[in-house]
Specification:
about 325 residues; mainly alpha; Tyrosyl-Transfer RNA Synthetase; 3-stranded parallel β-sheet; two-stranded parallel ribbon; about 55% helix; globular; binds adenosine-5'-triphosphate; binds magnesium ion
C-alpha cells in the first residue's frame, strides 16, 4: 500500500485491573467502535502498566486480561478490524521507554495532575514506585511505537498525552528526525463519568462503577444506591440537579434531551421523586447493558488467546520497525 493510501492510526489501552465499566464505554469504547473502519486501530491491554501499582498481585492483572478482551468483543470491537494485543508481548515498547526516559524530568512527571491524584488515591505518599511515576513515559512508547495520531480517551488521559507530545518534540529535535508523530486526544460524549458513590471518577481501582458485565439485579441495586440530593426528602421538596449522581448518569446515557430537560426542571421545582428518576435510569441502563451482557456470555473462551496472540504478533512487527527507526535516529544501530 502506498503511503498516501495508508490509514491513520488510532490507539488506546486499558489496564487489566478489573472488568470494563460504563466510564470506559462512554469515555472511550464508543469512539473506538466508530473509528474501526476509518482508522488502523490498535487496542492494547496494558498489563505491564497495571503491574506498576499491582506488582504484589500479578494474578489479578493476568486474570483480567481475558475479562477486558471479552468486554471489547461484547461492545462490538471487531478483532478483524482492530488489532487487540497484550503490552508485555511487545518487549520493544520497553526499549523505547528507556530512550524516552532521558527526555523527561522527574519534576515534570511529579507535576502531572493525573499521576498526582492517583498517588494520593493509592496512598503511596513518599513510597511511589519508580515504575508508577514513570508510566506516562511508557505510555509515550505505546503511542509512538504505532505512530498513533488519534487517542480516544477519557479526560484523565489529557495530561498524559501532553507528556507524550513533549517527548515526541524533544526526540525529533535532539536527534534531528521526524520519526515520531504527535497525537491528539479524542474525548467521548462524556469526558469523565462520576462514580456511583459521587466521587469525581468511576474507576476499576475505586470499585465504584457499573460494569458492562454486571447482572441485571446488580445494576438495579447500584442505581438505587446512588446519591441524589440529601435535602430532597419529600417528593414535593425542590431538588438539586448539580452533583446529583442520577442526573449525571442520565446526562450520559438518556438520549431524549428534551425530556431530560423537563425532568430536571420538574425536579428543581419540586414534585419529582427519586424513585421515578432511578427507575428511569435503571430502564435506560438495562436497555444498553442487556445486549452487551448477552453477547459477552456467548463468547467462546477458547477464542480469546487466539485473538490476543495474533494481535500481539502483528503489533510486535510494527513496534520493532519503529524501534529500528528510533535506534537509527539516535545512531545506535551498531550492527546495521
Ligand atoms: P484503574 O482504576 O485501574 O486506573 P480505570 O477505571 O481508570 O482503571 P483505565 O484502564 O485506567 O480504567 O482507563 C482506560 C480508558 O478508559 C482511559 O482512556 C480512560 O480515560 C477511560 N476512562 C476510565 N474511567 C473513565 C471514566 N470514569 N469516564 C470516562 N472515561 C474513563
Ligand atoms: Mg485509570
Amino acid at each position: 500500500m502506498s503511503d498516501s493510501m495508508k490509514k491513520r492510526v488510532a490507539l488506546t489501552a486499558d489496564r487489566p485491573t478489573g472488568r470494563l465499566h460504563l466510564g470506559h464505554y462512554i469515555g472511550s469504547l464508543l469512539s473506538r467502535i466508530s473509528l474501526q473502519e476509518e482508522y488502523d486501530s490498535f487496542i492494547m491491554v496494558a498489563d505491564t502498566q497495571a503491574l506498576t501499582d499491582n506488582f504484589e498481585d500479578p494474578g489479578k492483572v493476568i486474570r483480567n486480561i481475558h475479562e477486558v478482551c471479552k468486554d471489547y468483543l461484547a461492545v462490538g470491537i471487531d478483532p478483524s478490524k482492530s488489532t487487540i494485543f497484550i503490552q508485555s508481548c511487545v518487549p520493544e515498547l520497553f526499549e523505547l521507554t528507556s530512550y524516552y526516559m532521558n527526555l523527561v524530568t522527574v519534576a515534570r512527571l511529579e507535576r502531572n495532575p493525573t499521576v498526582k491524584a492517583e498517588i494520593q488515591q493509592k496512598g503511596f505518599s513518599d513510597s511511589v514506585p519508580a515504575g508508577f511515576l514513570c508510566y506516562p513515559v511508557s505510555q509515550a512508547a505505546d503511542i509512538t511505537a504505532f505512530k498513533a495520531e488519534l487517542i480516544p480517551v477519557g479526560e484523565d488521559q489529557l495530561p498524559l498525552i501532553e507528556i507524550t507530545n513533549e517527548i515526541v518534540r524533544r526526540f525529533n529535535r535532539i536527534y534531528s528526525t521526524e520519526v515520531l508523530l504527535e497525537s491528539t486526544a479524542m474525548l467521548g460524549t462524556t469526558q469523565r463519568l462520576v462514580g456511583i458513590d459521587g466521587k469525581a471518577k468511576a474507576g476499576k481501582s475505586l470499585n465504584n462503577a457499573i460494569y458492562l458485565s454486571d447482572a441485571a439485579d446488580t445494576i438495579k441495586e447500584k442505581v438505587f444506591s446512588m446519591y441524589t440530593d440529601a435535602d430532597h426528602i419529600k417528593v414535593s421538596d425542590p431538588g438539586r440537579v448539580e452533583g446529583n449522581v442520577v442526573f449525571a448518569y442520565l446526562d450520559a446515557f438518556f438520549e431524549d434531551n428534551e425530556e431530560l430537560k423537563s425532568l430536571k426542571a420538574q425536579y428543581q421545582n419540586g414534585g419529582l421523586g427519586d424513585t421515578v428518576l432511578k427507575n428511569l435510569l435503571n430502564d435506560t441502563l438495562q436497555a444498553i447493558l442487556g445486549p452487551i451482557r448477552e453477547k459477552r456470555s456467548a463468547i467462546n473462551d477458547g477464542d480469546i488467546d487466539d485473538i490476543l496472540f495474533t494481535g500481539s504478533d502483528k503489533a510486535q512487527k510494527i513496534a520493532s520497525q519503529t524501534l529500528r527507526e528510533v535506534r537509527d535516529a539516535i545512531g545506535i544501530n551498531y550492527r546495521g
